[in-house]
Amino acid sequence: MQVAQRDQLRQTLHGRRVAIAGRWHRAIAHTGFVPFSFSEAREHLLALVDRAIDLLLADKLDRQEAQSLGTAIAALYYAHPDALSHTQDVLARELLNGLTPEDRLALQPRLTTLMSELAAGFLDYARRTILAEQESIRGALLTARRQAQDALHASEARFRAVFDASAIGMGIGDMEGRILEVNPALERMLGYAAAEMRRMIVSQFMHPADAASVWELYGDLISGQADSFETEKRYFRKDGATIWCHLTVSLVRDAEGRPEYQIAMMENVTERVNAEEALRRSEARFRALVQNASDVVTIVDANGRVLYESPALLGMLGYSPQEMIGTDVFSLIHPEDLPRIHALFAEALARPGATIPAEFRFQHQDGTWRWLEAIGTNLIDDPAVGGVVVNTRDITERKAFEARLEHQAQHDPLTGLPNRVLLLDRLSRALATAEEHALVAVLFLDLDGFKLVNDSLGHEAGDHLLMAVGQRLQAALPLGAILARFGGDEFAVLLDGVTGANEPVRIARDLLAALRAPFDVDGRETFVTAAVGISNVTCAPEANPSDVIREADTALYEAKSADHAPIAVYERSMRPPLVERLERKTALALALERGELRLYYQPVVELATGRVVGAEALVRWPHPELGVLNPADFIGLAEDTGLIVPLGAWVVREACAQASAWQGQRDAAAPSAVPSAVPLISVNLSARQLLRTEVVTEVTEALRTSGLDPHALELEVTESVAMSHDGKTRRILRAFHDLGVRLAIDDFGTGYSSLAYLRELPFDALKIDRTFVGGLGRDPGSLAIIRATATLAHDLGLSVTAEGVETVEQARTLRQLPIDRAQGYYFSRPLPGADAMLDMLAVGLRLPGEPDTAS
Amino acid sequence: MSSRPSWLPEDIPLDRPSAARMYDYYLGGHHNFESDRRMAEQAMAMWPDLPLIMRANRAFLRRAVNYLIEQGITQFLDIGSGIPTVGNVHEVAQRAHREARVVYVDIDPIAVAHSEAILRGTENVGVIRADVREPQSILDNPVVTGLLDFDRPVAVFMVALLHFVPDDETAANAIRTIAAALAPGSYLVMSHASYEGTPEKSREHEELYRRTPTPMKMRSKREVEQFFAGFDLVEPGLVFLPLWRPEGPDDLFLDEPERCTGFAGVGRKR
Predict the structure, then answer these.
(1) Where are the domains of chain A?
(2) Are A341 and A333 in contact (CB under 8 A)?
(3) For a tag site, which of A59, A276, A281, A460 has the least CB within 10 Å?
(4) Nearest chain B Cα to A135, which residue?
């Protein structure tokens, strides 16, 4: 190629250098490692384009230069393989672009060689770069590792220094608890050499007093559930001494997170723990003092010498703490109490820590005796106390109150005299303690006609009379005799140390003489006579106080008999009152047998209509001497003696027969008057009757014999019977129900009732006790109770009867509540004859009062 | 949390890929190991744009340095500097100001070791190993306090860094702590990966990085903006990487900036 031709070509290519660089840049811009800005890149590439043009047009291709051109490209960090191929593409195209075909033909071989040399240079540089960079990064890795290693050694050295020099005991163990390494501080702390401890395992350092939680925490650590724990525990040193350590155990895990080592750090805190313990004890003592500020706190030494008194002493006993300190605490205790207190103090000394209560009298600074309650605790062994701590409070008032209570329990509130309890107590003591063959006497005294005073002048007057009698009797008795009131108008005297059999009689005479003068009872002159029974007893171990009392009672009974002197001394021949009862029983049995008992009938009125709808049968005993007796007078006797059984059976038979008769007679007389009303006959059954299953047969038999409709019979039982848990009673009540007989609860509200039985047993009716009816108009509670009872009964499907209605107001109130039925003097007394009842029932007679018109 | 005693040194894990060396590989470097390359190839198979995105990020770094030099900044603290190659902050900065001072910070011991090797003999440039999650340790490091004067403005770079701090409070605390040490007129330079743009790929990418010692958390634009509390964002604010003060029509992704799926911004301390 000619020089001129070259110059021309150079000129042409030079004119296009900017365009070539631009295209080149676009082709490789995003292959570079370092993103140059556009201007930076164009500058670099323009220079390279110039070098390429020079190489292309040189006489001889400088291969070295061609290769370094490739190197330069790669050195610009266009190091990506794409950068080379894109460069070759662009340069091969652009450097020949716009040339004549001849020129192209001439330059093509040169260009091809140029490109391959350029590629060689590029690749060589790239290879060297790769190697250099890989080498450099591996070098960096080695450096980093070496640095890490150095850091490890440094920290190991630091750790070792800390480990050896630390004042804190440290130990390293494996996960089986084998001790691998301990530091000198731990050797000193536990008294073992490191070599000894390396043969030990962690669990050898358990202490019997360790809390279970400590070894649970350790278990959690060993199992990897926890990474560390802290606690305080005791350790035995090799020499056997116990020390307290604050312990921290940490877990070291391997690279996979598995527990690998355990590290224990221990600090001896024995002194601190001991100090805390001492502090705690002295605090406890202080707290006790403060909390019991109202009590007196005394600390005494083992000899009873006062070491400390709290300030409350002055207020309680009048002494200042200063004057008491150093004195003998026993010197002011009541001599009677002293032996007991000495014994208790000795017991306290023998039992350190024990708490011992005591009550005793102590002399107040003003000279009076005070009852004190004290609790002593032996803390002599406690270095914070060094004595017996006694907490004391004044219980003088409580003692007085207790004495009052005891007095009340043993005394009659009206007269202030001892009561039966106290007299019996003294009698027992007298019998037990008196010398053999000594004499004791009991006198029973009973006023004559006291009931008359009570009835004519009133209870209050009766009470005043009794008080006056008590005073005169007391005054007439010798010193040492004990006068008691046994209740009612009955007094008793205990004479201890009687000198002879005559003495009690003489004293009895004195007593009667003392009553002879008239009494002024509320302004009235009243005369009183009395009888006295005397029991003399010779003291012997087998003597029984109740025998003595019974004998005196028998003697009194004898003395009260009309034909006897007012004073009787017990003799064996005397009949005791029990015999009297036997006689009464015989009389009742005879009356029953002879058919002398009578049934009275009290009408029962339906309040809504005022019509008589039934009657309650009530038994009467017309006694030849005592007049007509009410059930209250003899049913008790009948029950006690068993007579209630035939008596009850007779009442049921009689009542059923009577009711059946009424029914027939009424139906015959006025068949259309009240066709639906079946008159109801009510009969009382006692608890005793209901213990015998035969009663069911008896009732069945009575119904059968009389032909009475069972629905017309109502059996009344008391609340206590209704509540009975006796299976037999319950079965009997159910049997009655099954017969068709109605069941009613009598005197409802007088017992303590569980209302549950109303549900459990088949009752049809309940009768509200007369005391509630009597309270109507006087006490609002009665009305409330009646209303509540009625509501409850009605809700349970029971009808309600009120007993003891005496006034029109009561009748009206009850009707409005409403109560279904009622009976009482307001309507009618119990009627002796069957005829009057028949009249009422036959015509459906309305009784006076309520209501005038049945609507 | 394991309570590893502090006197036990940590190991240098070779078998786990590192973000710094993967970044180098994306850029075409060879400062990386087999594990890094395998992981990076996996990521690129999922998301072929990754190398270009890295380059766009690198380009942002360069543009930001140039901008700050124009603003008269001569002190630079580059946290998360990675494997240093040509075109690093100190090269750009010291070309403009011979006296410019630069401290590189990275958590990767190999990156730090390599940086030390490369920078040996270079004036006014230091490199330390530290964790941005313990920002006070950076501020207290004697290399930092020896080279940088915090009474004068300092430019702090957290380029492609905080998406490797998943805990929001820890990331915010890092900025707060460092910002508190800065004089008014200092700058915070930040780029941060975001799922805004290419949400699906971002999720997969997050998943992949979970396997590295530096797991990744993409954040929303709003969340990244909040990192600039106490700083005034300079124009054009927080934008997709290529849109931050582009230089010319040949810049990457200018026509589809959201492909970069990361935001960039520069804030000036009030």
Answers:
(1) 3-136, 166-268, 283-400, 411-575, 591-843
(2) yes
(3) A59
(4) B31
- Residues of A with CB below 8 A from B48's CB? none
| The model scores a pTM over 0.90 | no
Chain B residues closer than 8 Å to A129 by CB: 30
Find the length of chain B.
270
Residue pLDDT tens, chain B, 270 long: 333 333 334 555 555 788 888 888 887 777 888 888 888 888 888 778 888 888 888 889 889 999 999 999 999 999 998 877 656 788 888 888 888 999 999 988 888 888 888 888 888 999 999 999 999 999 999 999 999 999 999 999 999 899 989 889 999 999 999 999 999 999 999 999 887 766 677 777 777 777 666 677 889 899 999 999 999 999 999 999 889 998 776 666 777 777 777 899 999 999
Using CA coordinates, name the residue in chain B closest to A257.
B2
Cβ-defined contact of B29 to A33 (cutoff 8 Å)? yes
CA A120 to chain B, closest CA, distance in angstroms equals: 20
A411-575 domain in CATH 3.10.20.340?
no
Kindly report the CATH number assigned to the domain that includes residue B104.
3.40.50.150
Question: Which residues form the domain of B122?
Answer: 48-269
Residues of A in contact with B58 (CB under 8 A): 34-35
CA distance A176 to chain B (A): 20
Interface touch A141/B12, C-beta < 8 Å:
yes
Query: Which class is A166-268 in CATH?
Result: alpha beta
Chain A residues with beta carbon closer than 8 angstroms to that of B63: 37
What is the crossing angle of helices B50-70 and B34-46, to 10°?
Answer: 100
CATH of domain A283-400: 3.30.450.20
A35 with B4: Cβ contact below 8 A? no
Give the containing element (helix H, strand E) for A228. Answer: strand A228-236
Q: Which of A24, A25, A33 to mutate to test the interface with B (most CBs of B within 10 A)?
A: A33
A29 close to B254: Cβ distance less than 8 angstroms: no
Number of domains in chain B: 1
Separation between Cα atoms, residue A24 and residue B250, nearest integer Å: 12
| Chain A residue with the nearest C-alpha to that of B21 | A137
Torsion sign over Cα A461, A466, A471, A472 = positive
